[in-house]
Write a structure and sequence with these properties.
The structure is a homotetramer of 201-residue chains.
Chain A (H helix, E strand, L loop, with lengths): L1 H8 L6 H8 L3 H7 L3 H24 L5 H18 L1 H13 L7 H22 L8 H22 L5 H14 L4 H11 L11
Helix pairs in contact in A: 1-6, 4-5, 4-6, 5-6, 5-8, 5-9, 7-8
The structure holds a DNA duplex (21 and 21 nucleotides).
DNA sequence: GATGAATGAGGATTCATTCAT
DNA sequence: AATGAATGAATCCTCATTCAT
């Protein structure tokens, strides 16, 4: 597949001939379907992002509990990139080579999905299961965390199972790292309500 | 400066001649100081990472309280990349072009610094200011979150001030998003101690 | 028609696909009838030259007076290229692309026809209607003049009607540009008989 | 020289590498001085046209008699292309490959020079050495005749010396081909003055 | 017979690197 | 030490031609 070659050798390092060889077709054939090497590459990226979305969607399709949907989505996201390292490369390459082109495919996808997660969180807040924090910001934070985790895993060769990583992430995101006492002290100092909407328990 | 040109045009898109023009020297002169275009680029990346480290270090130098050191470091990190967008580009370019080279400069830096933050957190746990969670994992999570935030800001054009972002991040990391009640319910269900070492409050 | 496409885009600039599109057939079909693009092109040129010949021949078919045949042929020649600019292009293209091939089609045609005109002129000389100059040379001069006129019209965008041009050409060719007095002076100086075979009138 | 290679192999048939080899330099060196193969070619054409002009100008520089200037210019023109067959090829190639570019170099040159010859002829008419025919048209006719002669020589391999050709051309142009009697008959029939301004002899 | 998908040789152009000045 | 002219390896893309359907 073209994605594998691009991922292995990078966009500038990939000769279209190599992609042709990988696919077992002539170089000209590729140019019949993609006007330029660039379009060929972008199609591969797009395909990757679509598969990510499909896998995350599939992971939550039978899950009703909103909190559990978050749990499953985080796991599915990490699982996808764990199994598709080539996709991470493609995302990097896209950004590096086509800076001035358009919003990278990953962020197109992100923008298209983010609303659903915000809605989900708003429901959790109404149900008093989530603290009353601005959901948009929380979704951003979690999105960035996942994005950063994916890249770091790939670049720095993190050696923890994606299941363990999901657990670590959710532990921090759900409960935070501070003790109750410390948090209350800080909240008092800053003058913030401790638990959203003044509700304590 | 070379970094600016590389950041603007990307590594493959940059002619050494352009760097020479930017610096106001002859192309040959650059080759007197850097054996290849590649080394010239890597030197620019290295310089960027060093400046990041210096800025973060400076931000905590007069801060004694460990928790406050975290707060300041997070702010300094985001402030640095906010003010040095070119550096983000350089980090991406480095990864995209030199996949097979060595650990990227950013991660070299990360590995060199991570121990200090783990030590700091271990102290917080001992002081019962942080829940007793494995510090290594927490440091990873926070590192990934910052890394992902930096990239997302740059790529997707996030329009929130870095101060606000720091606050959002710290709010989630310090306290998590769940209400107390929800957390306890989950903790009970999973069979986890709620607040580290069985300590409640 | 193939000729139009070749004329518009030049031989190297023309894809066989474009010719196929113009004709409303598949590319493969063209290759059923012409073994190569080159042969396809040469066939178009040949067709053009044949049409030129037919038009010139038709213009003199009912003309008995030899001098009038010349007049009509000159007009027909200029009229043809005036109405078939694409043919001029084809003649140029043929020469430019197939230098080493064979005598260009136009000159094949020229050689095939030149004898008839020489015979015609010989008759005029015998009838004392033409000066006794070597007919071969005169035919060459007139042929070159027409050839040059056709090209110049096409390339430089001459804006005179072909009828006017025919008249201008015949005026010069029939009578020359000098006054009688000047001509006699020159002839005396060079030692040439003034009017062929010493005949004055 | 680049001109020779282009003339020998045609523009599309010439690899820039071949020009480089001919010149004994690297291919890249050529691209330092000419941005494209096309510009390299056009520069060669331009140089040829300039040399033509210089040679024709030189041939008349010491000649005072206007009629003799015409004689010498015709000889110089034919002599130039006789000695520089490559130039003819270049002129053809230019037209064939760059149809849509601009007025071909030859015609630029033609337009720049034609005025001088028209002036010269006007003087001849005033001196009653030339029949009173529109000089512009006569200059066109002679220009086309020379142009056509040059091409035909090159394409059809005419085997007459350029001196002989010049003589043939001038004989026709100066005196025309008809006998006096025939011309007068025609002139009477058409109702034209026989010798310009009613002058007979 | 007609088609057009597949092919891959071919060529213009770029640009990192060298080295004489 | 500094320069920039010269170099040629490297690569994207085109398009004439083939041939299975």
């Amino acid at each position: 597949m073209a994605a594998r070659v691009f991922a292995e050798r990078g966009f500038p390092g990939t000769d279209v001939q190599e992609v042709a060889d990988e696919l077992g077709v002539g170089k000209g054939t590729i140019y019949r379907y993609f006007p330029t090497k660039r379009e060929l590459f972008l199609a591969a990226v797009d395909r990757g992002v679509r598969r990510l979305r499909a896998q995350v969607d599939a992971s939550v399709i039978d899950v009703d509990d909103p909190l559990e949907r978050i749990v499953q989505a985080v796991r599915a996201y990490l699982a996808f990139f764990d199994a598709n390292a080539a996709c991470v490369e493609l995302l990097i390459q896209e950004r590096a080579e086509f800076k001035d082109h358009k919003k990278p495919a990953y962020f197109e996808h992100r923008d298209a999905n983010i609303g659903r997660w915000e809605d989900l969180m708003r429901g959790l807040v109404e149900d008093r299961r989530m603290r009353d924090v601005p959901v948009q910001r929380v979704v951003d934070v979690i999105g960035d965390l996942l994005y950063g985790t994916m890249f770091t895993n790939h670049f720095a060769g993190r050696r923890r199972s994606f299941e363990q990583q999901a657990e670590d992430i959710l532990d921090v995101v759900f409960r935070g790292i501070l003790t109750d006492r410390e948090w209350k002290k800080r909240a008092a100092a800053i003058g913030k309500p401790r638990d959203g909407k003044g509700v304590t328990r």
